[in-house]
Amino acid sequence: MNNTLAAANALKAGKLVAFPTETVYGLGADAQNESAVARIYETKGRPADHPLIVHIASKEQVKDWASKVPDYASALATAYWPGPMTLILERSELAKDFVTGNQDSVGLRVPNHPVALELLNEFVKLGGKGIAAPSANRFGKVSPTTAKAVSEELGNFLEPGDLILDGGFSEVGIESTIIDCRGANPKILRPGSITVEMIEKATKLILDESESNLRVSGALENHYAPKARVVLDQPATVGDGFIAMSNVETPQGVIRLASPANLDEYARVLYQSLREADEQSLKRVVVWQPTGNGIAIAIRDRLRRASNES
Ligand code: TXA
Ligand code: MG
Prior knowledge:
By secondary structure, the chain is α/β, with parallel strands linked by helices. The protein is built from ten helices and 14 strands.
């Protein structure tokens, strides 16, 4: 039996399976199994009223979970799935309160990673409808981008029969763009590598920029934080960790944690670099934020929360 088939069987039996996606690793459970989903919350130490994303194998499964799909949401799904994008839609009967955190909406995503897609397809063959999965970190901590990081975060909290699938390094490195598709116009709830320009291009609509009152835990302040204190755009001093673009020189006595050459690389290495700071027991990490639009907006969003500066 291959890994993903064994993992799909484990999910069907109510176990948890951590799996790779192109954004970050997820901690999955059968989205129809209430006690399995409850274990996700326990394992993460996450409050029970935070909704989970339901991962599906293809856009054909949207109609199982959503009761209403506006044309622009279909256009987004066609353009960017499988991919780093989560759509918030009005939920169907299948999306119970225990997955949606009592909200009338559901978050759906088709991830673009061969292991995740194989797992989802095996799960469908066994009669499964979707895999509920938050990022595979303890609540408030940095999302894992490798299987090793998952086992360091959650290893002590998993039970016999739970599995961690190894699919290498997550290519994108930061969580999916979350788009609320319930209004007349799409609205970004969490920025990611699917950018404003990409959304407007696929939908031919202008984004709704009004404030949202939806509960998005990734939108809480003090999230994505390592143990080390994250300080933004300050001079680094001796003993500090340091993250900046590759054209910035490393100050004397400072521990360089990452030197990304471009924005995509910045996103890809960010969380691993913050983990590295904790592995080296650093007290402080100085981060020089990237400038510009596109994915730089998402990187700055995560950095602001990691540093708890609003
Ligand atoms: O890239 C990602 O999105 C990763 C991978 C594993 O797919 N998942 C992820 O899950 O980041 P999580 O739970 O750490 O963050 C998902 C966010 C949460 O902040 C949650 O509140 C929000 O999605 N969310 C999920 N369903 C929602 C809903 N119905 N309404 C509003 N927000 C929702
Ligand atoms: Mg998360």
